[in-house]
Amino acid sequence: MTHRIVIVGGGAGGLELATRLGKTLGKRGKASVLLVDANLTHIWKPLLHEVAAGSLNSSEDELNYVAQAKWNHFEFQLGRMSGLDREQKKIQLAATYDENGVELLPARELGYDSLVIAVGSTTNDFGTQGAAQHCLFLDTRKQAERFHQKLLNHYLRAHAGQTDQLEQISVAIVGAGATGVELAAELHNAAHELAAYGLDKIKPENMHITLIEAGPRVLPALPERIGGPVHKTLEKLGVTVLTNASVSEVTADSLITADGQVIPASLKVWAAGIRAPGFLKDIDGLETNRINQLQVLPTLQTTRDENIFAFGDCAACPQPGTDRNVPPRAQAAHQQASLLAKSLKLRLEGQKLPEYRYTDYGSLISLSRFSAVGNLMGNLTGSVMLEGWLARMFYVSLYRMHQMALYGAFRTAMLMLGSRIGRGTDPRLKLH
């Protein structure tokens, strides 16, 4: 019987792995490869801040799982994992409902020989009072589009008003990591674009953006030499940056810090911290940590079941020689997907599996059209600091590399050409 590989989660890592395995094992009939995801389409998660600001039209940049499966010799099933039976080697999928609450797909089980869990992470609000009720999150395309619609609604209401009085909008972003920083810059750009298209009852200078970080500096996970220039650029753009400011409560129209400062905000985004989905917590006896991540060995196999692998943000993978885990970054998921594409082939052949070693190739932060900053790391060059146009080009190339892994060189080139042609006919900002 053909070895059955089930991959749960169609994010960047899971989708790249399914595509690679489909092209090798699936195409040659050495294994059947099945990808499971709760959505029908994929969009690269590092772009969600652009979807939220409206600078990226998600409908044009999405990938359809059904089509990708057909092109690359794997199978796709719509569903959300809800449980696991390790003894029977089956996963449980919850029932799927349409927008009217009518059951589209029943609850069901899927068997596996090798299971790969790559369900990513969600934002961690740390149980902050009012955060879940009053903040928006940017974990999914749907959430990003919801934020964009709320932002656009503010401008449309102001535009339709009968008074000549200028209006204001206040946006507060909790968390000055990459998502928070990039969203703040994209929103500043969006304010200028919206005014240029005639929605100018709210002037660009009247969009008040506040970025709130509990730690001592922005981009706390990256080197200070990156965080420093980013902080200065944000302030030049008019963004208010508050550090050492821990949010203790969120209300309908404001955030309250631990020291009692009240920050008015009509739109509030929580972009601080991550945790793996709650259903993973101790699922059928697998070992998990305090943020629900599955504990894995250097081979990316879970510590209590060699038939189950996990990688990406939902996995706690140790870094040899340190007391830290591999950081939850897109480059780590990409590296792990590449390793697992080889590991699962070796597993079918009964060979020893290689161990994962994280390689940090640097970090790049985009500040919309205004700037970009980062560092590239390599064996020959060491760490090279990049700023401005060159850093922006490297940042864009990261997405093109992701597309290359999914589409190949020719189709990626066609996508780039189509995007360039579309610039002359499409608005710079999504206006609906």
Automatic annotation (TrEMBL):
It comes from Pseudomonas morbosilactucae. Transmembrane segments: none annotated. Belongs to the NADH dehydrogenase family. Its cofactor is FAD. This is NAD(P)/FAD-dependent oxidoreductase. One of its GO terms (biological process) is aerobic electron transport chain. InterPro entries: FAD/NAD-bd_sf, FAD/NAD-binding_dom, NADH-Q_oxidoreductase. Gene3D superfamilies: 3.50.50.100. GO terms for molecular function: NAD(P)H dehydrogenase (quinone) activity. Residues 4-337 form the FAD/NAD(P)-binding domain. Keywords: FAD, Flavoprotein, Oxidoreductase.
